[in-house]
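Re: Re: ligand-bound prediction request (bumping)

Still looking for help on this. To restate: I need the protein modeled with farnesyl diphosphate bound, output as structure tokens. Inputs repeated here so nobody has to scroll up.
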Amino acid sequence: MEEKKDRIPAHVAIIMDGNGRWAKKRGLPRSMGHVQGARVVEKILKDASDMGIRYFTVYAFSTENWSRPASEVAALMNLLLTYMKTSIPNCMKNNVRVRIIGDKSKLSPEMNRAIRELEDTTAGNTGILFQIAVNYGGRDEIVRSVRRLAQQVKDGTVAPEDIDDSMIEAGLDTSGVPDPDLLIRTCGEERISNFLLWQGAYTELYFTDVAWPDFTKEELQKAVDAYGGRIRRYGGLKQ
Ligand code: FPP
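Reply:
Sorry for the wait, this slipped through. Here it is.
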């Protein structure tokens, strides 16, 4: 029993790709793919928690996504705002703690208020940590951390030669959370696309052709099993 638990990744991250293609295939607007995608996120979060996964991080809106058509950006932001505003009861029921990662300074005041309320209300929950990346880019996150350190050097509180991994890590949005063990990307693309660049240095990658709106608990289990198989083969060494 103990051994089986060891093979469950503590932290799973997901690039939820294929919402647009899923919708197009059905003759629906792209935004309907995102609506279905959002339903699937909530379901898979619960499944992940039931499987014993402790941290679950999803790429909901990247720093590059602003260049999509204005109507699609608005639809995505609306969907995310609705989630922030309505998910508190469900998170409390399921003991989920929520944290938003990414540069929140470019999000609307209304979104920031909703995020704060969701994060504050769920802060004491002890179950799975659900990290939602909004206006997130891995390079942008590293730049923000380095800028913070540069300011400390300028202020004379940090010496350049004292800067190490842990000081850069401390300035990341994910600070304090273990690096992802497993990164899943759906719908056929095999790229990292600027997601968790620093944190993903040793992360196992899993790609599937299934589009995100069609993703199921069985698909998650397949990814976790593949991860478990690799860990057994390589002895779980991380470096
Ligand atoms: C990629 O598919 C998906 C996105 C850019 C958005 C993902 C966002 C959600 C699923 C909603 C998240 C909601 C919550 C509650 C966290 P794509 O549009 O790039 O698809 P395509 O490659 O087929 O065009």
